[in-house]
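The protein record filed here.
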Amino acid sequence: MPRFSIVVPSHGVAGRLSQALDSVLAQSFGDFELIPVCDAPDAPAADVVTGYAERDSRVTPVHSPPSDGLAGARNTGLRAAVGGHVLFLDGDDVLVPGALAALDARLDGTGDVDVLYFEHERAPWWEGEPTNPAAPLLARTPDGAFTPDRAPLLTGVTLPAWSAVYRRAFLTEQNLAFPGDHFTDVGFGGLVALRVERVAVLRTVVVRHLLRRQGNRLGLPGEHHTELLDQAELVLTRAAEQGLPADRLKPLFEQLFAAVLKTAAHPRRLTSGRRAFFRRASTLYRRHRPDGYRAPGGSLGVQHRLLASGSYAAFRSLRAAHRTASRAAALLPRPRGLRTRLRYAAALRLPLDRNLVVYCAYWGRGYACNPAAIHAKARELAPHLRAVFLVEPDAVGSVPPGVEYAVIGSRTYWQVLARAKYLVNNANFADAVVKRPGSVHLQTQHGTPLKTMGADQATYPVVAAATGSFARLLARVDRWDYNLTSNRHSTEMWERAFPSTHETLEYGYPRNDVYCTASAEDVARVRKELGVPDGKKALLYAPTHRDYATGFETGLDLAEFCEAIGDDYVVLLRAHYFYDRGTSRGGGRIIDVTGHRSSEDVCLAADGLITDYSSIMFDYANLDRPIVVYADDWDVYRETRGVYFDLMELPPGRVARTPAELAAVFRDGSWADETATSLRAAFRERFCQFDDGQAAERVVRRVLLGEPPESIPSVIPLAERVPAPAATLVRS
């Protein structure tokens, strides 16, 4: 029997889960079992956990459906536990080094206690000093093992479940489990404290709680706040049945109602039913108030007295001014120019147009990428919706005939942004755009992240300087309602890079649908448009942007490269979109396609891809055609830009470090041999999970038509997809 069973629920924290598991497996004390609790075998966290279970026999995953919530996940893990003591660790928390050794030593010193409470740190997600909220409370407890009457302030309801280790036999004998769906720590902590007979504390930090930027899920608006009253009633009722002494009942009552009053007074937590919440809380207050109880002083005491008397009108008036000021600040428009601000403010007072969708791609560069693919599918599936594409003045020519557009900065631009029910973008709308209640913002992204993004860029000075204010960046992220991903890797990395409360849609990238739907005729048409000679193999060369460089440098002498590989090939040069000057040049063996509107068309035309670290490799992999990585400055790029994984260890095909090596893989044919094919297959398995040709339909049905998740078409397995055929290569 292991000394410890460590239960780690993982719902919604796939991006941080590896940190939690690593912190456990790295402990110097190794006598434990680690029980990650996943939603289902195909959930994002399950992919993370499977690798750990294969590498370490102490990892034993179990599953609990999302509908059972955090309480259900912990209870499932508890039922699977066989260790002498149980520790609950949230999936976005970590054990500090030496934590288990410290717990083991303390338990040896205190003897067989039912619960050992310990200190924990709350670490800000961005910057600032960690806090240790349990330290003052634990400092006032006896030094050795003690009975609960010697520390009446240790009620359990103010400490999270992961701030203690529990004797498993005690939990089993007392039939203790996590109650309800929300605020389960309040109920569990209170019930444990009521039943415990021997307690001890460890005045050392054991868990580091990583605060989420979007805050605790329990702080979000919703009806779930009524469950706080359920938990308070459960604990107080059990205390009454047990005949809890007054010196223990008073702090329990006071701590529970401090949480209740905080919720009742918060203007955004209870979006409806505030009066009913207050009245029920008032009834509970009077029913369970200890004999002779005296309310605290100050404004908190006023709230106690109003709650005791049931004076909701007076309580509401106490917060009315603050709520009014908050609403006014939230709707304050911020565009430049007095006339523009006034017009925008006037438009914001008009009702939302529930049939209006506004699209934008690459900060207005044109009709392109995921927004364009969603727009095209919406014209088919939701023809009742009016669509407006936002473009810069010099990109008007990219808009196809029949597509309504607005020039960025124009009067129409601000009008449609103010009135639109749906806003779809692959980057971000301007800072001045107000997120109106009832509007729906869809972030489609425009690639799979190899390089660090969002908040993860902060530790790379060159990138951080170019990014600007991270506070402003994250304020833009807060407007998102949905965020689109094309693979589980992206799901995890976006959660880290763009922390907020939006919902992730694992639907695939709509722009990549064409890779499964295009025909041989489509491929031939595009090649002809680009000027690819018949019978020639077209190699797409698509290098990425270097943050540490100025201007565009290919890093490769294409003329020499073409000479070295022979006459069978032509090269399609596509620079990063930062260097798009709106023109395409053809002719000879090097065809510049940087200005071609559709990167998808260019990929269809190419028989193979040469890139360095561009995210185009993830999209092109859907075509199941050869990819060669030209990594002449990988070490510099990795150190200055930051990356999420080592591309050299997980390449999509052959890797070349010098021009000579690059030419060699084409001369000897190894760019498309069995080894290259095997590397590409593994890469596709990891990064082509959701791009099956139906992504646009899933997005339109879920976001624009409001269909329930269970009715959305499921993803076609990778093995069953048929990519668009290449012009000169035969796929086995």
About this structure: Residues 121 and 208 are 5 Å apart (CA to CA).
